[in-house]
Amino acid sequence: MSYPFYLAENLAAAAHDRKAFLNLVKRNFDVIMNTHTQSDTMKKLRVAQLEALITRTAYRRGANPVVLFDTGMVFLEKIAKLKVSQREQMAKVILDYCEEALRLMADSAERPARPSLLQRFFDEIERTTNDVVTVEGVARRLGVSPSHLARAVKSATGRPPIELIQIRKLGRARQQLSWSSVTQAALDNGFYKVSAFIALFRRHYGETPGAYKKRLANGAS
């Protein structure tokens, strides 16, 4: 059986059952690591994609998006630091992230539903990929004023919407660095000035995209 043998719906269906969820992720991880026709770099990319799918499943089941995306970046960093030969450690990282995602999904079931405007805001920035995303544009598509959107998002999350938009774009670009150039990752995620992308990336992650990409490649060797 070749990778991927799951669909997003499989994870979503299994999310209510901790054991089933963990087993499905573990089976996918094993298929990735047991594939002899792919390079170590490609295997790490597949593991990163699996982590992204866990994030998407947790998000769709109501996990707090701010906490979820921040947590996902922490575990993606752990994956980046490991070599493919460190299979047991990498499996532990991906399964530990599953446990965190399950916990966030359980927390969401105990909280009142998020305000519809906040949910729609996160849906909008999750959907948008290479378009220029602005607070004004998102507010217009949601049918509210930018100031109203800013107040609602800041009140609910403690962060202004522009910061959350940048974090999401940076997160997508950072994942893409596993397989594309710094320039391409910047352009594909709406950063039309590569220098601005590099500066923002360094400010947020403490290193340049090039340094992160080199460290990722060295870790996969």
Describe the protein in words.
There is one protein chain. Helices cover 74% and strands 0% of the residues. The chain is an all-alpha fold and 221 residues long. The longest helix has 24 residues. The protein is globular and about 55 Å long. The N terminus is likely disordered.
Provide key terms for this protein.
Arc Repressor Mutant, subunit A, 74% helix, globular, mainly alpha, single chain
User: What percentage of residues falls in helices of 4 or more residues?
Assistant: over 70%
Radius of gyration: 18 Å
List the secondary-structure elements in sequence, H or E.
HHHHHHHHHHHH
Number of helices: 12
Number of strands: 0
Short description:
The chain has two domains: 8-110; 116-219, Homeodomain-like (Arc Repressor Mutant, subunit A). Helix content is 74%, strand content 0%.
Topology at a glance:
Layout: H1 8-14, H2 18-33, H3 40-60, H4 65-81, H5 87-110, H6 116-127, H7 135-142, H8 146-157, H9 161-176, H10 182-188, H11 194-205, H12 209-219
Helix pairs in contact: 1-2, 1-3, 2-3, 2-5, 3-4, 3-5, 4-5, 4-9, 7-8, 9-10
